[in-house]
Amino acid sequence: xxxxxxxxxxxxxxxxxxxxxxxxxxxxxxxxxxxxxxxxxxxxxxxxxxxxxxxxxxxxxxxxxxxxxxxxxxxxxxxxxxxxxxxxxxxxxxxxxxxxxxxxxxxxxxxxxxxxxxxxxxxxxxxxxxxxxxxxxxxxxxxxxxxxxxxxxxxxxxxxxxxxxxxxxxxxxxxxxxxxxxxxxxxxxxxxxxxxxxxxxxxxxxxxxxxxxxxxxxxxxxxxxxxxxxxxxxxxxxxxxxxxxxxxxxxxxxxxxxxxxxxxxxxxxxxxxxxxxxxxxxxxxxxxxxxxxxxxxxxxxxxxxxxxxxxxxxxxxxxxxxxxxxxxxxxxxxxxxxxx
Length: 340
Ligand code: ZN
Description:
CATH class: Alpha Beta
Helix content: 25-40%
Bound molecules: zinc ion
Strand content: 15-25%
Distance between the termini: 10 Å
CATH topology: TIM Barrel
Shape: globular
Oligomer: single chain
CATH architecture: Alpha-Beta Barrel
Largest sheet: 7 strands, parallel
């Protein structure tokens, strides 16, 4: 009970990529050496989580430069040479995004070798993350489909093929990252959840969706500052997710203004990954602070359904900060477990 896990990403070592930045450039140009370095970094990421005592570990997303574009590189129909600077997350920030130029197609396995490698490194349960359909569509320029919902469904079909294979390769939890769900609130109950349902159809392992308020970068902090005293975005989308086919919902609570009452909207139908670690601060929370978040969530959902987690990915943080946060997450969960 109260098994700990993380949202997905961890900081990369300096010899793999420039530290403490998003979309960091690889430190190595030679392709074979880069592959070797990525694998070494995955070993370390898993080892760090095991050492901290995390129950359900991830590969720390060490093999991808960006949580959306890393996957798209292997999909046909997307032109990475044709990048367009567009406003994403409802124009919260600008990003150079590749362009969909023809029908998208998965021509072969995308993450299978990464997953097979990570699987061999640990006996613990393994989580693997992929971007969700709505977030993919929001992080791309589109010159072909001309309809976001239609493009999302096309990506959902590709994600589904991939997810089914990764489950067979031994992944225990496949998580789709959907930060865009917190932005396009009206579209989540319609095509957002429909696309997710398609992505998990027939997938044999547990499935999760992660919805957060983003990394601690300036544009996000400014956006959050303008969201008011109570962040009520989740209350608009959780009813639709409660009736979705996703098993687990990952939400942000630590240091946020999300009221814990929103958990009731899941109607006890889902597991809840409780974000108990703030990824925007450079100091690890104390185990007591973590325990406090878990206890508050337990007022609305039984501990059997709770998985203490980070608010979001920790890739932009210094490695020692991230390690401290992992340890506190585990210690905080332990404290609450001892009280039950
Ligand atoms: Zn996140």
